[in-house]
Structures are given as structure tokens and as C-alpha cells.
Specification:
2 copies of one chain form a homodimer.
Chain A: H1 4-10, H2 15-26, H3 43-58, E1 62-65, E2 71-75, E3 84-88, H4 102-118, E4 126-130, H5 144-150, H6 154-158, H7 169-179, E5 184-185, E6 193-199, H8 204-208, E7 213-218, E8 220-229, E9 233-234, H9 246-261, E10 270-272, E11 276-279, E12 285-286, E13 289-298, H10 301-314, E14 319-327, E15 330-331, H11 334-346, E16 352-356, H12 361-365, E17 371-376, H13 392-411
Parallel strand pairs in A: 1-5, 3-4, 3-6, 6-17, 7-16
Antiparallel strand pairs in A: 1-2, 2-4, 7-15, 7-17, 8-13, 8-14, 9-12, 10-13, 11-13
Helix pairs in contact in A: 1-13, 2-4, 4-13, 9-10, 11-13
Chain lengths: ~425, ~425
């Protein structure tokens, strides 16, 4: 019968142990308001790593790291094949919650415990990965560890990036490697599959009253920065006809883009004007320079290309447009998706189908091995916030679905077709 | 013959001495880029005061101060009547030029020198006033010294205001009074007239190719702060229909106000959205709170009242509106305006007629005594900037017109009708 071993291991997932693991990790960088501030490679984050490493060793794992300080907890398989990997990240936003990333890591640890309790050794090895600096709130860009894992040459560039205190990534990595000098640094080995379990960080699953989603892929993204130039001048003495008001120009650019985007199917569209800088930013001075950012996401590469055209059309003598970051839409592996649906059906979970609007380490891993994700609901869609919450029963269901899926993948006689 | 004494004194105005005085004052707080940073009551500004006081004493003046650290250089008249007063301020914007305010003070000093050279004693005393903290860039609000002069009870409130370093105005005033403890503090005495000479700080005179303006009054003003509330959320995971984007809301509020204002006569209108604060101001987070300011000016009190109504109509559950500052339009004294035109005619100066869009100490003085202003052109309309510049011949013409007007007012047998 299909998924027998997977269902068996799922039965050993323990809700209380999962919640205890989440609570234990949340103590590293705990804020008074119930949130967590655990920035990548800070002393507190290194303490959390030490705690996780001890736990992994207790569970019988070998522990590896790599040049970008990703961690790998490896549970041996019956054969020395490329491993089936799960995991996520443990760095947080400055005022984050205790689930974003952490849930994927702790659910991976729970899966290792469940395998031990079930007394099962899978055919392929199992690994739980902890990807370095996914949030990008200490060092830009985000998803840095998984990015450098799949394309190691990127690390050379990242090494010179500095945090707000002026510390380079190279210095921060040195500290980490010195503290964990007992660990073997391993190059990026082939993986049979990567399955990431994460909170949705949006309101869709809760609104649909679904406990879990099989994630089809990740929306493509553009980050643009628009700089509108004007002439700073006195708000009282400069007649309206003589003004070059950078804020009025920026307002028009924003309205134009909103209007054009409104013609696109709203379901798949995300458009956000999140960061604004106005100079000189004085109540009685006309703005001489306004810089704002756009975050545009869509699952359709053609729509993203259309948006790139619009941004070029916006460019003028007074409007400078720079693309800060671009990523093509990612479609997850079809064979893995089928396995996920088979597991959710076998576990009688009424799973939704979703495309992720957020980045995840899985975005990069998809270029390295067959990859996919599960989402559990986020209460009120809130994330990056101490109020981040998911019903414990959904956290447990997610871990069960993950356990089932990983076990089946690890026991398959043949690998997944990339 | 009309204005004989005034024209005579004007003939003693010396361009080089005027420019030397401006250059000497600009050394206090000189910036490498040619600008000046001389914040009210800082050690550098106190040095500038000491230099001015010495100069005034050399010119034969008595020197007085008052509780708000305004300075008065008094040249005795033939009779002990309320004085005819000129002057402006010597504090600057953080990156200001060497003319804003300073020109009015140094032209006053040049007038005292010219009177000495001409050997003329006017009927009424002449005073040159240096008003404390006109720019308001160290302590809010601006025009603080003249404001507290005309209504001394305001000082009690101002005393607790703090600069960016947390120093209270009371502490800063104490330093100043201690350094100049030899000066007599004088209450606000009646004045026969106040005539302020200032740069236009706008482009109108240069565009009209006029060397001087007789200023009719000062536009009324409203400073509003608008706070738009939204729900901060992830830019990728939150569908457009589920968003409460504070930036989109703010953009709509701005567009609505711009649209309504566009229906008003543009000549007299000033509308500026100068200061913006976006929270959390992250590229990939929907804005949860956007605060922006409006600076609205008009010479017609009915239009200002109409604008107040619009701001109230903007208010909603998600849009909070607060009036930060309001000032009614000021019309300068008709008898003084007639004297100004008589002087410019006698001196064959082709003077324009203007309403000031900027605040000046004259705005407050108008409630204390008959008040008026002269403007000279600002090259390219630039002010609050190291590039602030006025053609030296216009600076001289302005000082001559001021000298003529002050002399005539000081010699008039009867006072000006308030």
C-alpha cells in the first residue's frame, strides 16, 4: 500500500514536543513583547546554533557546515545516496515571531525524533538544513545562505557586505566558524529532494479554512527603486508654476503604476510601495529628491516582463529607475507535488493549492534539486510580527504531512526526476 | 522738499562696507561649501553677537537685550520718543547662506554708519534689532524671539522646548544671558515703526527684472499633519484585496488635496507636501502608517478657512488630521507703504509690489507697531542654501531705500497711525 512507512512515521509526530521545541528556540533572542529578535550570526544566533547542534547529536545525527555557515544535520540512510532534505532558517526579523523559518527547522527536528521513535531507517539519508540569513535583515540580500549554497561564487561578493554596525559578512562568518571549529565544512553535495515546511505569512489559507497548502511555486519578483528629482525651494516663496516638486512627481509616478497594474488580474498581482525617502524632508521646503521602492510580484513571467517595460517607460530626465533585484517565477517539481498530494490524501488532510508570494530558501534550492514546499495557515495573515501565530493543531498536521512526504521520498527505489 | 534728509543719508550708504559687514558675519559658522551654519544661541552664534555688540558700541549705540535674548542697538534721537526700528536675525538654516536675515541686520548697521558719516541725529531714536531664533531650526517654532517680544507670555511655553541634543531653551538662554551679563534687559517698549529689509527667497523679482519690492504683507499659513493608518503586512503574501496600504491611502489624500487646490487662483496659492515618514519603511512590507505634512499659504483668509474645511472633510477612521500651526494673513501698514513708495520714487528705484510667502519677524512685529518690509531679489529664487545670492548693487539699493525710509519716519513730526 502506498505511503505506508510515511503514514507510520507521521503517527510518531508529537504535538507537545513540537511546541516545546519551538518555545525552546524562541528563548534565544526573546523580546519582552513576546516576539523574537535573532539576527544572523549574532552571539544569540550562535547560541541557538549550539543548542540545535547538541540536540541533533543527541538524536544521532552527524553535523556539517559549509563556507556560508549553513548547517546540515544528517541522519544516515541504509544506502549512501544523495539525501532527502528539509529545513528552513532560524534568523528572524528585528521584531519577528517564533514561527517564520523556525517552524521548518523544528518540524525537521521533530521528524528526526519521530523516525527514532518509530525505529525506522530510510533508504536515503535524511538531512535537516538550517540556511544562514534568510531574512536579510542583518546582511543584504535575504536567503543568502541558500543562494551561496546553490551558487558558491556568490559568496565572494557577499563577504564584503556590511551590517548596520559596519561588520562585514566575512568577519561574522569567521566568528561563527571559530566557535564551531569542530564541525566539518562540506561542499554543496547533490540532494535527492528539498521539502520546506513554512507558515503562509498571508491570509489566504485561513480565509479558505484550509489547514495546509501544497505550494506550486514562488511568484517572480522585481524590486525597483525610483528616484524623482526636483528643486528644493522655499514652500512660501516659490509660486506653484515655478516649482519642480519631487514629491508631486513621485505621487504621479505611483498613481500611473497603480493605474496600469489595476488592469492586471488582481488574484496573482502584488504591488507595494514600501520604502520612501524624501529630501530635505522639511515641512516648509519643497522636496528636491524623493526615492521610493516598488515590490512587484506575479506568477507569470510575461507579466513581469510587461512590468519591466512600464518601468522603462517611466524613466525620464527627472525620473531615474533602477532594478535592485529580479527573480523569475519558480515552479516546484511536479513529481514532488504529486507525492505531497498523495500524502495529504492518505492523511485525510484537506490541502489547498497556493503559489507563494514570499521568498523562501526553497526558491534557490529549486535550482539545485527537485524542490517543493508545504504551508500552514497564519492567523490573520500576520508575520514578521510578535503576533505571528498558527493553531497548534495545524502546526502538527504540517509536521505530519512533511514526515510522510520525506519518508516516502527517502524510501523511493528511484530518485525524483529534476 | 520731501525726503531730503532720507535721500541725504542714503547717499552715505557704502556698498563695500555693506559687503564687508556681510562677509565678516559669515565667518561665524562658515562651512567649507561657502554656506553658513549658525544656530540660535550656540557658542558660534554668541561669538557673532559679541562681535556685533562691539561694533554697535563703536558706532555710539547703547545695547539692550530682553528675556528672549533679542538684541537692540539704540542710536539716540533728538527726543526721547518711541524708536524707529529695523533689523532681522542672524541665526541660519543648518546649510544656509549669508544673506537670509543677516542682510537685514548688516544693512541696519550700515545705516548707523551712514547716519554717523552724515552727522545726522534723527528726531526719534533709531534701533537695530536682532531677533532670536527666526529659522526655528534649533528650537521650534521659528520667529521665536519676535513672537515672545510681542507677547511675552509665550516665552513661558518656549522655555521647555528642547533642541536635538535635549538642551532646553531655558538652558540656552541662561548661557547667553551669563555671557552678556553686562547688558540691560529691557521690557518690550512701544515702537514708532518696524521696517525689515530681507532677501525675497523666491524667483519673482528676478523674473520681473525688478531690483526691489515694497512688501504688502505676509500670506496666511496652515501647517497640517496627516496620519494615514494601514496594516503592515508582507508585500508578497498579502493579496491586493486584503490590504490596508497606508501609502496608497496617503497618495489618494495628497491627490485629492492637489486637485481641490488646483481650482484656486494659482498666483496666490502655495501648497507643499514636504515631510514624509513611512513605517516600517521596508521594501517588502506594506506601509502600516504614513505621516505627511502640508504647508498651505494664501493671502486671503477666506481661502484659508475653505482649506481648513477640506482638511476636516479628509478626516476618517484611517485618516487623522492635526493642525500644527496657523497664522492669519498680515497686511502691512498703509502709511508705511506710502512712505516706502515715496522713497523708492525719490531714489528712482523701479520697485515691485509683492506679498511675502515666507514668514519673517515682521509678521509678529505687525501686532506690536506699524510694520512693513522691503525685499531685494534672490538669484534663481534660491535660499536656505549656500548658493543664496543677491547682486551687490541690489543689496546696496535695498540699504539705500531702507536708509531713506527710516530717516523720514524718524524725523516725522507725528507718529504713524497704527
Amino acid at each position: 500500500m502506498l505511503n505506508t512507512a510515511g503514514i507510520e512515521v507521521s503517527g510518531f509526530i508529537r504535538q507537545q514536543r513540537l511546541l516545546d521545541g519551538l518555545a525552546a528556540l524562541a528563548r534565544f533572542g526573546a523580546l519582552e513583547n513576546g516576539g523574537v529578535n535573532r539576527q544572523a550570526l549574532t552571539p544569540i544566533e550562535l547560541d541557538a546554533r549550539a543548542w540545535l547542534i547538541d540536540w541533533a547529536i543527541t538524536l544521532g545525527c552527524e553535523v556539517f557546515t559549509d563556507p556560508c555557515a549553513n548547517l546540515f544535520f544528517r541522519r544516515a540512510g541504509r544506502e549512501d545516496l544523495p539525501p532527502v532534505v528539509t529545513g528552513s532558517h532560524i534568523d528572524t526579523q528585528p521584531g519577528g515571531g517564533n514561527l517564520d523559518g523556525c517552524y521548518g527547522v523544528i518540524a525537521g527536528m521533530e521528524y528526526l525524533s519521530a523516525l527514532n521513535d518509530a525505529g525506522i531507517t530510510t533508504r536515503r539519508p535524511i538531512e535537516v538544513a538550517v540556511w544562514m540569513n534568510e531574512e536579510g535583515s542583518r546582511f543584504a540580500p535575504g536567503a543568502m545562505g541558500s543562494s551561496a549554497f546553490v551558487q558558491p561564487s556568490r559568496l565572494t561578493d557577499y563577504l564584503t557586505h556590511r551590517d548596520a554596525q559596519g561588520i562585514t559578512l566575512a568577519e561574522a562568518l569567521d566568528c561563527c566558524h571559530q566557535r564551531f571549529s569542530m564541525l566539518t565544512q562540506r561542499p554543496a553535495l547533490p540532494m535527492a529532494a528539498f521539502v520546506e515546511l513554512h507558515i503562509e505569512q498571508g491570509p489566504v489559507l485561513e480565509r479558505q479554512d484550509k489547514p495546509l497548502a501544497v505550494v506550486q511555486g514562488i511568484q517572480g519578483l522585481r524590486w525597483y527603486q525610483v528616484t524623482c528629482l526636483g528643486q528644493p525651494a522655499h514652500a512660501g516663496t516659490t509660486p506653484m508654476a515655478d516649482r519642480r516638486d519631487a514629491m508631486t512627481l513621485a505621487r504621479r509616478c505611483m498613481a500611473q503604476l497603480e493605474q496600469r497594474a489595476a488592469a492586471l488580474p488582481a488574484e496573482e498581482l502584488r504591488l507595494t510601495f514600501g520604502r520612501w525617502e524624501v529630501e530635505p524632508n522639511a515641512i516648509n521646503t519643497i522636496a528636491g529628491r524623493v526615492t521610493f521602492t516598488l515590490d512587484f510580484r506575479h506568477a507569470d513571467a510575461r507579466v513581469l516582463a510587461q512590468f519591466d517595460d512600464w518601468m522603462q517607460e517611466l524613466t525620464s530626465e527627472d525620473v531615474q529607475v533602477a532594478c535592485l533585484f529580479a527573480h523569475a517565477p519558480v515552479a516546484f517539481n511536479a513529481q514532488l507535488l504529486a507525492q505531497q498530494y498523495a500524502c495529504t490524501q492518505a492523511l485525510e488532510i484537506d490541502a489547498a493549492t497556493l503559489t507563494s508570494g514570499a521568498f523562501h530558501d526553497a526558491m534557490h534550492l529549486a535550482s539545485h534539486c527537485p524542490t517543493t514546499m508545504f504551508f500552514v495557515p497564519s492567523h490573520n495573515g500576520i508575520s514578521h510580527n510578535p503576533a505571528e501565530h498558527t493553531d497548534p493543531q495545524y502546526l502538527t498536521l504540517g509536521a505530519k504531512a512533511l514526515a510522510c512526504c520525506l519518508t516516502e521520498l527517502a524510501n523511493q527505489p528511484t530518485g525524483v526526476t529534476p
